[in-house]
Amino acid sequence: MTALLAYTIFGLVTGGAYAVVAGGLVLTYSTSKVFNVGHGAIGMVMAFLYWELAENRGLPQWLALLLVVGVGAPLFGLVVERFIMRRLTGAPVGITLVAGVGVLVGLIGVAQVIWPPQARPVRPFLDQLGVHVGQSFVSGHDLVTLACAVLVAGGLYVLLNRTRTGLAMRACVDAPELASLYGTRPTKLSALSWAIGSALAALGGILLTPVVQLDYVTMTLLVITAYTAALVGRLRSLPWTFAGALGLGLVQSYAVAYLPSSPFWISFRAAIPALLLFVVLLVMPQSPLRIGGVRGSRGVATPSAVTTGVAAALFGAVVVVLALLVDPVVAAQLALGLVFGIVMLSMVLLTGYGGVVSLGQFTFVGVGAVTVARLGSSSPLALIAGAGVAAVVGALIALTALRVSGLYLALATLGFAQLMDKLVLQSPIAFGVRGSLQVPRLVESPAAQLLLAAGTFVLVGIGVLAIRRGRLGRRMIAVKDSSAACATLGLNVRWIRVWVFSLSAAIAGLAGGLFAQLRETVAASDFQLFNNLPLLLFAVIAGVTSVSGALLGGVLLMLLPVLQSGFPAFAGVAVVLLGVAAAGLSRDPNGLVSWGFRAWSWRRA
Description:
Order of helices and strands: HHHHEEHHHHHHHHHHHHHHEHHHHEHHHH
Shape: globular
CATH class of the largest domain: Mainly Alpha
Main location: membrane
InterPro entries: ABC_transp_permease, BCAA_transport_permease, LivM-like
Transmembrane segments: 6-27, 34-53, 59-80, 92-115, 143-160, 191-210, 216-233, 240-259, 265-284, 305-325, 331-350, 381-399, 447-467, 498-516, 536-560, 567-585
Number of strands: 4
CATH topology of the largest domain: ABC transporter involved in vitamin B12 uptake, BtuC
Keywords: Amino-acid transport, Cell membrane, Membrane, Transmembrane, Transmembrane helix, Transport
CATH architecture of the largest domain: Orthogonal Bundle
Protein name: ABC transporter permease
Radius of gyration: 25 Å
């Protein structure tokens, strides 16, 4: 009984910190209809800033907390709202998601530049104080966390439901033009909500720091639990969000206490937030979210079959020349870039044509790689098997998530990616107890690997363009533009989504098999959850609506670690630039290659 009470108190304290973070997320969404994927990254950066002031500079804890939560975080929220989110007012869900991911990745880069990796302990608040509840001790930090959770939940409820400012915030979201006629200022109210939301993200991150310690990715992805709590409240009910956060904290605490300590159950405990996110998305009634995909501007023109054949021949000739001229190291890097280009082709099919933003596409690459590694064969049939297994997994995910769309579907792919990461890819199920597997190569020399990767890219690219010109491609574009209109005309929108998910996963799985054979050794670290985010950003930056964009995106993704290893001081800066570029180009999913197409069209004209 004493242990149950202790774990209950620990769960309520952790849930209280989640409630603070989730409250800020609900506030920004309910007042702007923009789901801030970078909410956790804001809390992470502000937690580092708090460490800098309180631990490194020696300021009193209360003063450091006041400066970060009361000054630094609100100012940062104002900057994000003014220069990024205000430009996305009325944009489709997919575009705002990409911008949020850009903010997330950029902030991780900022933290890496300012605070290089090292241990940074943070003292709890009021660590000398506390009370005894039965035989359990509740520390001063625990009491502060619970008090903050209650005050934040009550304060936000009063703000949004009992004050003119809160009512005006909500009115500006529903009808900004009409609200402005009554004297409100929508831009200032939006800025206020983002300032408060950022302050709450900072407060939640600081409260959680003594529990999870300062880590770039761990603290950023910890917000997945806050996503789940916010979705329990359907992104608008603060009481339900508060209750959901406390419930999630209790579930995690009881799992630590009562689940077995075997490797599988340790992985299961780590996957509980993602599992709960997935369950909440599937069982709860859908909120009236805007259905949206990546639609910014009109997609680039689809080339004819003749043009595709000529371009494929020219590309093949260039690759043959490169294979003969470059040294083996460069040939291997180019082959890896083309493999990443094949992964980008799966994004072209799913996001560019289908309008579905996936935050877990690299997971299918891991499925293909694990399949090929487990087969232990150098036969081309192993690559086909990897693609087939990934296609089955993609179809299962699509069938499971048939009833969700837009933002909910994107978050479902994020939950799926973390489930696979914790339960499969990071566990002995995939890579054994050593955490890595040896893979026999299909071809030996780097030049032959480059030719193999190029040939596969050409064949997959031709297939993707053939799908775009065919009946399925036309239906995909129609569903992306208006799924309601397609359903009215009798199209089975859900089965179109299943086909798109399955084909896209098959392409990613094929790339995963090639990746495994090129690397010869694959490990769990190659397919971590965070790897999905740069993949999406490079796809959008280069152009997620064209095969040319996939090629450019693959090469850029290959160059990122090369530049980071060659110029260690540039590592964090490169991540910052990636996030800024993605946030800036989120409205134009045709990306950089579209500029070249427009320049060529102007020259011909």
